[in-house]
């Protein structure tokens, strides 16, 4: 009888182990589904919230807040000049631009690709003068990286839809 | 004794089931590793082979071959004009550019991000005149999509490192 009891205990233990195995076995399917269905809609909401922060900082001429939309190691790939590398240099560039500037900007997310590691966005932007008249408009591709728990601009390459104008002195 | 034999058989079966469960349990780790280790090195080789094709087509002033580096639904986001959408329009744009043009181009892959679905590349490009003198240089971000079994340019946004020049008449 003792042998039977021991075997019963072994059987019960094995059943429990199998049940936990079964649970673990279900995980890959769920993981695969979650990887395949990376929540691009949630990422889109985050990028659009970032656009609102970018606009607010730009329109307030707040170069610190604007530079904070970029990762610490970002490249601001602006036209007609070499790329500006790193948040301090980007902040400095915006600081110079904002000196006496009264323009405002509006960003529109056109398309978004990516995964948990990086996002790439297509953006259509418009700049207005203080009376709301269009000064410039254009397009950009942006690469995002997660930093401090937020999607931040890691690469930002843009150009204008308008004919080239020589730089003002 | 019959009860003991039955229990032994049940135990043996449960052990076998557990062993097969254990095997299944190992799968997610392997799957995750294979997903994490998307072969970016191979993708880099493909993108660089695409750059060689792009340069060859550009330097031969072959607008058909150059447009074929782009997906059928690509957006060529060139500076100082609206984006050119779709391969036929892109081919037409290059055709107009190439009329009488003798410049050559060199592309350099700076960085690459992505997965099986899309790649994003950072590119540093230089244009030369027929005597090998630098005419222009700049940077771009490119989004790639797989079409006809090849990574092709799906979005291509670039600008120059040189000061803006007004358009020639």
Structural features, described:
Two copies of one chain form a homodimer. Chain A contains four helices and six strands. With 169 residues, chain A is α+β, with helices and mostly antiparallel strands. Chain A has two domains: 1-37; 40-160, Nuclear Transport Factor 2, Chain: A (Roll), CATH 3.10.450. The first copy, chain A, has a six-stranded mixed beta sheet, with helices on one face. In chain A, a hairpin with a 5-residue loop joins strand 4 and strand 5. Mean pLDDT of chain A is 86; it is low at 20-34. Chains A and B meet through helix 1, strand 3, strand 4, strand 5 and strand 6 of A and helix 1, strand 3, strand 4, strand 5 and strand 6 of B.
Provide the number of structural domains of chain A: 2
Distance between the termini of chain A: 101 Å
Name the CATH class of the largest domain in chain A: Alpha Beta
Overall average pLDDT of chain A = 86
In the predicted model, the low-confidence regions of chain A spanning at least 5 consecutive residues are: 20-34
Quaternary structure state of the chains depicted: homodimer
Q: How are the strands of the largest sheet of chain A arranged? A: 2-1-6-5-4-3
Q: Main interface pair? A: A-B, 52 and 52 residues
Figure out the total of helices of chain A. Answer: 4
Rg of chain A, rounded, reads 26 Å
* Class per helix and strand makeup of chain A: alpha+beta
Q: How much strand content do the residues of chain A show? A: 25-35%
Order of helices and strands of chain A: HHHEEHEEEE
Helix proportion range of chain A: 40-55%
Number of distinct beta strands of chain A: 6
Just name the CATH architecture of the largest domain in chain A.
Roll
Biggest sheet architecture of chain A = 6 strands, mixed
What is the CATH topology classification name of the largest domain in chain A?
A: Nuclear Transport Factor 2, Chain: A
Sum up the overall morphology of chain A in one term: elongated
């Amino acid at each position: 009888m003792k042998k039977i009891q021991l075997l019963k205990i072994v059987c019960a233990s094995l059943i429990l182990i199998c049940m936990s195995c079964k649970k673990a076995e279900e995980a890959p399917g769920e993981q695969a589904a979650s990887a395949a269905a990376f929540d691009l809609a949630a990422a889109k909401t985050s990028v659009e919230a970032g656009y609102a922060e970018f606009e607010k900082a730009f329109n307030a001429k707040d170069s610190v807040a604007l530079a904070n939309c970029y990762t610490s190691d970002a490249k601001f790939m602006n036209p007609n000049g070499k790329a500006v590398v790193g948040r301090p240099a980007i902040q400095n560039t915006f600081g110079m631009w904002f000196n006496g500037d009264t323009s405002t900007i509006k960003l529109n997310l056109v398309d978004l690709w990516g995964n948990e590691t990086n996002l790439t966005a297509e953006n259509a932007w418009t700049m207005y003068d203080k009376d709301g008249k269009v000064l410039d408009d254009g397009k950009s591709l942006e690469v995002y990286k997660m930093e401090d728990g937020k999607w931040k601009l890691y690469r930002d390459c843009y150009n204008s839809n308008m004919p080239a104008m020589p730089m003002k002195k």
